Amino acid sequence: MIDFLFDYATLRVIWWVLLGVLLIAFAVTDGFDMGVGALLPFVAKTDIERRVAINTVGPVWEGNQVWFILGGGAIFAAWPALYAVSFSGFYLAMFLVLFALILRPVAFKYRSKRDSARWRENWDWALFIGGAVPALIFGVAVGNTLQGVPFHFTDDLRPIYEGNLFGLLNPAAIFCGLVSVAMLVMHGAAWLAFKADGVVADRAAAIGPKAALASACLFAIGGLLVYAGFLGGYDVTSPIVWDGPSNPLHKVVVEQGDAWLGNFRDEPWLWLVPLLGVVCPLLAAIGFKARKAGLTFLASKLAVVCIIATVGVAMFPIILPSSTNPSHSLAVFDASSSRLTLRNMLFATVIFLPLILAYTAWVYHVLWGKVSEKDVRDAGHAY
User: Fold this and answer.
1) Of 222, 220, 221, 210, whose CA–CA distance to 279 is shortest?
2) Whole-structure pTM value
3) Comparing C-alpha atoms, which of 371, 271, 346 is closest to residue 313?
């Protein structure tokens, strides 16, 4: 069993799964932080109401960003070719995301440093930018990934990126960005309905069903676009050598309109993943209406998991397709680090990931309960 676990092919699949787990964990946790930021101007009208909304995420947003750092670290160490292509090709888009994510903690820390309505309002808009911009850009990145990214490799495996920021903002990618925004707004509304008290929770519960229905409808439309071939698709046609060298030039990949449906045709049970990606937002919408905050937040989390997992399941074993030279696409079986690196990283993950999960669970346990206006006024340490 141990020998099988450390087989090169198995390690590659394990790290593909772990990368997906880390990215989904980031979307599930920091996703509701971004959703709250995007909702801030709409659910809170007065300063005390905005402080209630902010303090629902104030104690946890830093810990939630751990998953973003872990995901980036996993890409760097386990999938170096993916790191090189994506972080260089999406450089300006990443810069916008990082600017927004950096703006958010500054806004958290500085909005209450002065007793000025204009000062606080400006920082509240910074929190809105810090929530809405990453939500949109992450979705745009997924949309471009599905369509293929304009890169190729030289004979010595030097990546050449041929795109630009404006090329990333194509209609299909922007549509995927809207799916992401709707999904995270739904998730943020579910968190506020669960965690906030009073009028903030009421407004979130009123906005939540609209965002949930938008998530379900947009995701379903996206599925139809994939089925019709509008989002493209890539298929590996050469024999796959799962334990072969990490060289993306040693395979044949063709662009094929319905290729992203191939895994679902081969394994029909996988259709359950996108099906839940439509059903769970609808359940969340029902939960909002019924004011079942706990079940609503659970349905919202499952919706986020299934929507993102659908992309990974559809693309497997391709990680990042190339639109300029499809055969240079990065795949699970030819874009990883060495077997020794993957094995040693797995040892570290087995040790440290449970610790991260344990302290995260402890933090949420300690901070359990709703945030009310009285709590914010009485707590000298509140944002």
Assistant:
1) 220
2) 0.93
3) 271
